[in-house]
Design brief:
The structure holds two protein chains of two kinds. By secondary structure, chain A is mainly beta. In chain A, 0% of the residues lie in helices and 59% in strands. Chain A has no helices and eleven strands. Chain A starts with a strand and ends with a strand. Helix content of chain B is 0%, strand content 50%. Chain B is mainly beta. The chains are: A mainly beta, B mainly beta. Chains A and B meet through β4, β5, β9 and β10 of A and β4, β5 and β10 of B.
Chain lengths: 113, 113
């Protein structure tokens, strides 16, 4: 059974810090990996999608990397802002399991003033 | 710019009652999904559909039913509600799986008492 783990479960950093969120998965035969943001009481918003053939994707202050061989992905947030406070979830899809995303439990990030 | 719309936002059900969660999308996506999210947990797939008239079970389908008579709508029916179905339910859609961004609704909070 594929498992996706995110550590830490919660993180608090002062504004302006660069930070890294971690995601690990047990089965390296992934098709793609996505990072989502979830604000309290809201749905999920897709931030970055990395195909299995890619090593990283960037959007603004966000950079996601993928290392299939080690079963890991990281989400790097540069110059964090209070508006980045949210829960970040990663999810993987596997070849042959169309439409089925396996989610991690998320990292709750708080950026303080 | 509606995207994925879910109703109702909040609902309290008594044990044994039935109800339908409505979901509609206006992006002409052929793939639609229902997930549930329990507190502190990741999302788990209940049912999904790859097009009108086609549905399939996800990881946790027991106690639920779905139908897909149109491209736009994908209702989720809860039969004989149980306290274990207390959760937040998210509907989502994508143009095609395994490579396209998935869009989520804002969620439906369901409490079974």
């Amino acid at each position: 059974k594929q498992e996706v783990t995110q550590i830490p479960a919660a993180l608090s950093v002062p504004e302006g810090e660069n930070l890294v969120l971690n995601c690990s998965f047990t089965d390296s035969a992934i098709y793609n990996l996505q990072w989502f943001r979830q604000d309290p009481g809201k749905g999920l918003t897709s931030l970055l999608l990395i195909q299995s053939s890619q090593r990283e994707q960037t959007s603004g202050r966000l950079n996601a990397s993928l290392d299939k061989s080690s079963g890991r992905s990281t989400l790097y947030i540069a110059a964090s802002q209070p508006g980045d406070s949210a829960t970040y979830l990663c999810a993987v899809s596997y070849t042959g399991t169309a439409s089925k995303l396996t989610f991690g439990t998320g990292t709750r990030l708080q950026v303080t003033l | 710019n509606a995207g994925v719309t879910q109703t109702p936002k909040f609902r309290i059900l008594k044990i044994g009652q039935s109800m339908t969660l409505q979901c509609t999308q206006d992006m002409n996506h052929n793939y639609m999904y229902w997930y549930r999210q329990d507190p502190g947990m990741g999302l788990k797939l209940i049912y999904y559909s790859v097009g009108a008239g086609i549905t399939d079970k996800g990881e946790v389908p027991n106690g639920y039913n779905v139908s897909r008579s149109t491209t736009e709508d994908f209702p989720l029916r809860l039969e004989l509600a149980a306290p274990s179905q207390t959760s937040v339910y998210f509907c989502a859609s994508s143009y095609r799986t395994e490579g396209n961004t998935i869009y989520f609704g804002e969620g439906s909070w369901l409490t079974v008492v």
